[in-house]
Amino acid sequence: MTAPKLAAGLSEIAPAYDVLLCDxxxxxxxxxxxxxxxxxxxxxxxxxxxxxxxxxxxxxxxPSVIAQLDGLGxxxxxxxxxxxSGDATRRLLAERAPGPAWTIGSARHDVLYExxxxxxxxxxxxxxxxxxxxYDEENDEPGDYRDRFMVGVGxxxxxxxANPDIVVQQGxxxxxxxGALAKLYESLGGRVIMAGKPYPAIYELSLAKAAEALGSPxxxxxxxxxxxxxxxxxxxxxxxxxxxxxxxxxxxxxxxxGPDGLNVPAVEDLLRQDGLTATYAIADLVW
Length: 287
Description:
Blueprint: E1 5-6, E2 19-22, H1 36-48, E3 52-56, H2 62-71, E4 81-84, H3 85-96, E5 101-104, E6 128-131, H4 146-154, E7 158-161, E8 167-170, E9 173-176, H5 178-187, E10 191-194, H6 200-214, E11 223-227, H7 230-239, E12 243-247, H8 253-256, E13 257-258, E14 261-262, H9 264-273, E15 280-282
Parallel strand pairs: 1-15, 2-3, 2-11, 3-4, 5-6, 6-7, 7-10, 11-12, 12-15
Antiparallel strand pairs: 8-9, 13-14
């Protein structure tokens, strides 16, 4: 397994690429504040090289994510398009309307269902389950849903997961995402369908947006994925044989960043344990 090349900055590898597919949470913000150096790097690439498509596992359609980016101070010059797991998941939900669906998630994710004609019900009357995250993102754990999930598995209800992420970094805290609940449901014998990273649907949408921005077909050999999540960003890029820059300071920062900066052997060990490869590795995204 080839070890990743260490990148001092995006500038030294940018000439080899025409398109960036860049993760959002953990790479350009942490849920509370944006990372100015990372945003500046993306803006520089977009100005000098080509389109930057932000590819997020947020379980909401992209307009609400754009509003969040604006609120966190991410400049619009840093991206060309935003594609979310919510965008891809809406296609799956529309195919199953009117349901009804037992929906799990906070009220701020209700926008996912707008205009789809999906009816909401309790578990006993549901035709399928849709998960955008825990009800209480700050305090719930996957195990809190075990008993209800056993009922769903017993009824052979399919679970649609709007965000494959297991955890996400919010400030200095890791919180559970929909992927953690989906993983539990699957472990209990349930059927799970996902559209976000690392699954194909979100990449197909993202590459279509890149082609639109380029005004020509995308050469996959000249696409660089950027992300901090091994099971989502890195695995998704590997599955599509796309080059990838691993940003070590994100959700795996506790394992890969030491007093002297990037711990290269730790990065290599993490990748090896998951059977993954990264073309490049960097501590934080900078130009």
